[in-house]
Amino acid sequence: MELKPPFRADQVGSLLRPKELRDAHERFLNHDFPVGKLRELQDQYIRQVIAYQEELGFQAVTDGEYRRTSFSSDFIEKLDGAKSPGSLELKVNAGAGQFAPRAFRVEGKLRHSRPIEVEGFAFLKAHTRRTPKQTMPSPTMLLRGGREAVSRDAYPDLAEFRADVARVYREELNQLGAAGCTYVQLDDTNFAYLCDEKLRGTFAQWGYDPATLAGEFAALINASIAGRPKGMTACVHICRGNSAGKWAAEGAYEPIADTLFNRLEVDAYFLEYDDARSGGFEPLRHYPQGSRKKVVLGLVSTKTPEVEAKDSLKRRIDEAAKFVPLENLCLSPQCGFASTWRGNPVGEDVQRRKLARVVEVAREVWRNA
């Protein structure tokens, strides 16, 4: 059995909420449900979802992100100075099933005045004997919108702004480490948007140079995880967007692959490979020889009800192993099942069967899974 994450069978983080919890969350957002009672329900169902993951055979477990409204805004809006005014205005023609992702603004100096995920992590850790996994949005989310999304009064110098982004993330990671966290995943959508020609144009409209932006993203993440607590595994999930089964970006990893594998100083990559929008495995050729970094293949879709066949998954793992050694590969769903509190349009039975399939295939491919 692998002793250090990510594990041969892993998962991205969010899981479908039970109906009672979804209904309570909606009422809470409409100011019709007390926060204390919602917290009691969250505690109850998080205990259950921990046991659910353990029963399925996962060595790393999350709280299902059951306390969040969305994977990104709950965290970022707890940073002093950051706000989420709604969705981005993307000047592109959206395709079927596509959505406009969340926008963020920085209206004042960024400060990490209180722990954000520590209390929730402590609850998770106290209720599992497996490795508790903490997810959080990537710091690159705060670069959306370019200069116009950052207050000139607070930050006349954008270098100071980026230094503050990295600082507040380091403070949170250090507090999580002090609480016993050894496994962190940064959920990043901006890298994947650089794979989409239409969305690359949006970055250009914001004043960025798409040709150099991947390097800027890598530098910000590197600064944010620098000096993290000893023994803490830091991963990045490269996501094409996931909201109620819809997506935001498409395109193969080729435009970002060299930067991703050779300049981003993380321990592992969770990569989406669930459908044709992700392209083939050829960009994995940029993976550096002799590296110990893990590549977690997101081959199981969280958006569709069809459960992937074992033979198909094994064949695709073999294809990826032509570029990355098999011992450095793992398997997971392509994304979470509920990046927002509403969840994706798949049933709980489908979710269970897909997660069980991940564990089953991993055990057959890697005997120590």
Properties at a glance:
36% helix, 369 residues
The separation of the N and C termini measures 5 Å
Give the domain tally.
Answer: 1
Strand order of the largest sheet: 5-6-7-8-9-10
CATH-defined architecture: Alpha-Beta Barrel
The profile of the biggest β sheet is: 6 strands, parallel
Per the CATH scheme, the topology name is TIM Barrel
How big a fraction of the residues is strand? Answer: 5-15%
Characterise the protein shown here.
By secondary structure, the chain is α/β, with parallel strands linked by helices. It has a single domain (19-365), classed as TIM Barrel, CATH 3.20.20. The protein has helices at 19-29, 35-56, 73-76, 118-126, 158-178, 190-193, 197-205, 210-225, 254-262, 310-320, 348-365; strands spanning 60-61, 80-87, 102-111, 131-132, 134-137, 183-188, 233-238, 268-272, 294-300, 329-333. The chain has a six-stranded parallel β-sheet. The relative contact order is 0.15.
Topology:
Layout: H1 19-29, H2 35-56, E1 60-61, H3 73-76, E2 80-87, E3 102-111, H4 118-126, E4 131-132, E5 134-137, H5 158-178, E6 183-188, H6 190-193, H7 197-205, H8 210-225, E7 233-238, H9 254-262, E8 268-272, E9 294-300, H10 310-320, E10 329-333, H11 348-365
Parallel strand pairs: 1-4, 5-6, 6-7, 7-8, 8-9, 9-10
Antiparallel strand pairs: 2-3
Helix pairs in contact: 1-2, 5-8
